[in-house]
Write a structure and sequence with these properties.
The complex is a heterodimer of chains A (315) and B (94).
Chain A (H helix, E strand, L loop, with lengths): L1 H17 L12 H20 L1 H5 L8 H26 L5 H10 L15 H22 L5 H29 L3 H20 L11 H6 L7 H19 L9 E3 L4 E3 L5 H11 L3 H14 L1 H19 L1
Antiparallel strand pairs in A: 1-2
Helix pairs in contact in A: 2-4, 4-7, 6-7, 6-8, 6-10
Chain B lengths: L6 E7 L7 E7 L3 H12 L7 E6 L11 H5 L23
Classes of the chains: A mainly alpha (315), B alpha+beta (94).
């Protein structure tokens, strides 16, 4: 009897998804759907929070007050986006502490792009332009994801993200049209961030572990390779306007497909960085742990303050 | 005169996938009754697929006199809007 019921619920669930009806937290859902979403949303949240580090390091070194204010706002937004996403994951029953613990123990990942260092000011331009553009390409279809709270968080995030991309492009344009040294600095940043940005879309479709089920559940709407191609098609003309060269000798416009052809991605590098051996993996995680532990007294003080006031009102 | 019944705020989700939106309030003795009333008062014409009722007293609201301190700091940060940035001519998808 119970099994038949689950069958009926599972069929109803998939019918809803097929009919483009959103799933809400209190609806019945398969355990695997819940687990997949908790994994994806929490890792998305971790990416926003860890992503504050490479840019955050440049706030005190921004070249003008204007740039400093902009960067401060952007990094603050990333923190906010992490919080929207943790809250969306919590509607599925995941606790904040368990998600942070999964990050700290290495069970949960974050976007591998943030394991690369931001070496020069031009990197701040390249991150805003390329990394945020790639994130937007990923996130726009997620606004129609089958799980309501995730989709709604994405609507907010995409709306706020549009300035991130533009401020990055503006930095790149300023450098690319500046002195020869400044232009070289912009080119160097593009050289280092281009390939890791392409890797942000994950393994190629043939090797993607989670894709087909996520497609059937409409958590994912486009394949990794489709999204990567969309990003390349947008970014290459933008690089042309900057007068910078995309570091791919095989890059060429294909009249027939109306897409750019591009060279082979170094998946060994991608796997190495995902496994933990990128340039900054240890540093990023150690910094997150340090701040989390250093902030423990604040969380304890908040609880103690609340308790004190409850005791007083009990009298 | 007897005490008025507690006030409840009513939120309706008009369609799955959309957020619950505040539609109004009502008085009821308890949450269960508030839910019944909300259904009768606010969703007689297929206005929604889900209802929330919340005791008004449980809502923590910002105060009108605090509005300046709360919201004015956003006024001088136009760089948070995408339209603040000049783009070179011809650039697309930004």
């Amino acid at each position: 009897m119970a099994e038949i019921q689950v069958d009926v619920q599972a069929r109803r669930f998939q019918e809803r998804i097929d009919a483009e009806v959103r799933i809400e937290p209190k609806d019945w859902m398969p355990d695997a759907y819940r687990k997949t979403l908790i994994r994806q949303i929490s890792q998305h949240a971790h990416s926003e929070i860890i992503g504050m580090q490479p840019e955050g390091g440049w706030i005190t070194r921004a070249p003008s007050l204007r740039r400093k204010l902009i960067l401060l706002s952007k990094v603050q937004d990333e923190g906010g986006h992490g919080l929207y996403l943790y809250s969306a994951a919590e509607t599925l029953g995941a606790s904040r502490a368990s998600m942070i613990d999964a990050l700290h123990s290495g069970r949960a990942k974050y976007s591998s792009i943030f394991n690369y260092p931001a070496l020069t000011w031009a990197d701040i331009g390249a991150i805003g332009w390329l990394v945020d553009s790639a994130a937007i390409v990923n996130q726009v279809p997620l606004q129609r994801c089958s799980f309501g709270p995730y989709a709604r968080a994405m609507v907010r995030i995409c709306k706020e993200e549009s300035f991130h991309q533009r401020q990055g492009y503006e930095i790149m344009y300023t450098l690319a049209t500046g002195s020869a040294d400044q232009k070289a600095m912009a080119q160097d940043a593009l050289n280092r961030w281009w390939w890791p940005s392409l890797m942000m879309f994950g393994p190629s479709d043939a090797d993607s572990a989670h894709s087909s089920q996520s497609m059937a559940w409409k958590i994912k709407r486009f394949s990794n390779d489709e999204l990567r191609q969309k990003f390349i098609d947008q970014a290459v003309p933008q690089a042309d306007i900057l007068g910078l060269e995309v570091p791919d000798t095989e890059l060429a416009w294909d009249e027939q497909t109306q897409h750019y052809r591009y060279g082979a991605i170094d998946w060994d590098e991608f796997n190495r960085v995902v496994r933990g051996d990128g340039p900054c993996n240890r540093q990023r995680l150690a910094e997150h742990k340090r701040v989390h532990e250093a902030g423990a007294w604040v969380r304890e003080a908040v609880v103690a303050y609340d308790r004190k006031h409850q005791d007083q009102s009990d009298v | 005169m007897s005490e008025p019944m507690p006030l409840f705020e009513v939120f309706v989700r008009s369609k799955r996938g959309l957020e619950h939106r505040h539609v109004g309030s009502l008085r009821a003795q308890d949450a269960e009754m508030a839910m019944q009333y909300a259904r009768e008062i606010y969703t007689r014409r297929q206005e929604g697929v889900s209802l929330w009722v919340v005791r008004s007293g449980d809502i923590v609201a910002s105060q009108e006199e605090d509005a300046a301190a709360f919201f004015d700091p956003a006024d001088d940060k136009p760089y948070r809007q995408a339209t603040y940035y000049d783009l070179p001519e011809g650039v697309k998808n930004l």
